[in-house]
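Model: Ready when you are.
Researcher: Fold this.
Model:
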Amino acid sequence: MRAFFFPLFRLGRLPVLAAGLLCAAHAFALDKGAAAPAFDLRGLNGQVSLAQFQGQGKLVYVDFWASWCGPCRQSFPWMNEMQAKYGARGLQIVAINLDAKNDDARGFLAAVPAQFTIAFDPAGAVPKSYGLKGMPSSYLIGRDGKLVFEHMGFNQNDKAELEKMIGEQLGASK
């Protein structure tokens, strides 16, 4: 199967791609079991770092999003649901916005509120370290700081598989 990638615009030097136009055949830059790249970004409520959640023993679901991303509008309600359902068991969702203009991100959040941690990376440094290929993309990072799985795109059919992976990791870490 061939993957088609269509750049929509460039964010800094990071090409941002339409997840809806991506086929299943794609490669990620990180290997399962590899240490997740660290980040320390400005968030809605202060600094947000991967280390702060690892220090708390959290399972971290990192999601990259942008205001113009249609599938992101679908994923936010699901992430709200997952944070509410599994937060007490140790899940922390961190959604990293890649919009060049903060006002665009804030407009999205006014329409689609987030009940999880939001961080901003307008320069696009963190997605480069994760090898981001399309939007949205998510990465589940185990309590040990290692990559459990990666997922590109989001649609209604993804929800059960993603929740199963989260539940398995939370069950396995107890």
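Researcher: Now this one.
Model:
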Amino acid sequence: METQNLERFLKSFGGQVIRDAKANLIKAKGETALGDSIRFEVTADEQGFTTKFFMEDYGEYLDKGVSGNKKEHSYINTAGENVKSPYKYTTKGPPIDILSKWIKRKGIKPKGLGRGRDKKTGQFLSGFAYLISKKIKREGIKSLSFFQKPLGIKYKELKKGFLTELKLDIESYLITYYRPK
């Protein structure tokens, strides 16, 4: 059976979720590589259709937030409920060398904080990066829910429109193959 209407509907659903998620991310963080990495695929198999969403790994941490040692964070899930973040900093914070690269890329030049070398890699590390890492470990990362919100909103619309599109595909199939004589 041809399922053109259903496939088109699912591709439209995925496209709308991605568009809204990217808009939310740009509003919160500006243009980022994470926004460019968000994509979806609609695949068909013998059991039906699957719509899969993909993004950089750290996108989930920004979407759901990360609780710190002293502060708990929550996010808004697809059902619109406020849920505690599944991620938490316990013993380690974010890597200082990554933060040091970020500081350099942003052109931040803090005054009064020296630089040292990492014992393993020999790379120069900023004392400022160490302070940022400690703060993130303590406070955590606030949730943006940039992906969960649009997915929940569009999923409600998906449930309403799915049967309509399936009905159109079935009617088309019946008219094409079982036309009465």
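Researcher: Key takeaway?
Model: The chain is about 50% helix and 15% strand.
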